[in-house]
Every structure is written in structure tokens, then in C-alpha cells.
Amino acid sequence: MDAKIERVQSAPAMQRFACLLACLGVVAGCQRGAGSAGPPVSEAYRSDIEDLCDALVRSGADQLPSGERALALASWLAAHQQTQEAHDYLARIQPLTGDPKAAALEAEARRVGLPRCALADQWRAAAPPAP
Question: Which of 57, 64, 106, 112 has the fewest CB atoms below 10 angstroms from its CB?
């Protein structure tokens, strides 16, 4: 009978131990993800994302009325993107609008090592306010 009491009393201790192990696993997983930058990025792709982030100025679209900027940007990007990876990335984020699109571009800019992205700032500023 003493063995049963000992097992019952050790159950909460085992639960605490299991919880501690689970928490350590989560923390270790987060730390591993925080330090890794994902797959290596080619210099050509990094250059394409840098061009994308600065496309408003590099294309001259910043000198046009806001309604005419999209065509100028698209034309300039089509002529200046070097990698298929950049074309694929643009196609992936194309359906997004406003903040989600800006956040996706900012994340990609950070992934390739850029400190900021002017086009993402522009997309965020141009987004209509949420209802």
C-alpha cells in the first residue's frame, strides 16, 4: 500500500518534470529558428530584392503622380530583375495588398540582409485604413 501512495505523490512531480522538458524543447526550438537565416541567398537575388526595395526611386516612379507609378514600377522591374527567384517572389506576393504585402517584402529584405525597404514603406502608407 505504501508503494501506491508513493506513486500517487510522485505523479505531480512527474507532471512538473514533463512540463519543464516541454518548455525547454519550445525554447530550444525558438532559439534555433532565431539564429538561422534560412537557405543561403545568392548575391544576384539579394541585388534583385535591393532593386525591388528601391524601385520607386530607381525607376523614376517617385516623380510621377501616384496613379501612374504602378506601370512605371512594373516596367522597370521587368527589365531589371536578374533571377527567376525574384520573379517567382514577386508573383507570390502580387495578390497581397497593403500591410500584409509590405510585411512580406520587409521580411524578405531582412532575410537577404537589408536593414529596410522603402517600397514596403510606400505600400504600407498607400494602404487604405481598415474599416
Answer: 57
Which of these, 73, 84, 66, 80, lies nearest to 125 by C-alpha position? Answer: 66
**Is 76:9 a contact under the CB 8 Å cutoff?**
no
Give the whole-angstrom CA distance, residue 74 versus residue 90: 10
Amino acid at 28: A
Hey, where are the domains in the chain?
1-36, 43-126
Return the residue matching grid coordinates 505600400: 123
Secondary structure of residue 13 in the 3-state scheme: helix
* 120 touches 109 (CB < 8 A): yes
- The span from the CA of 102 to the CA of 109, in Å, is 10
**Residue 116 near residue 50, CB atoms below 8 Å:** no
Angle at 13 between CA 9 and CA 14, to 5 degrees: 105
pTM above 0.70, yes or no: no
**Cell numbers found for residue 69:** 507609378
Using the predicted structure, report yes or no on whether residue 26 has a pLDDT greater than 70.
Answer: no
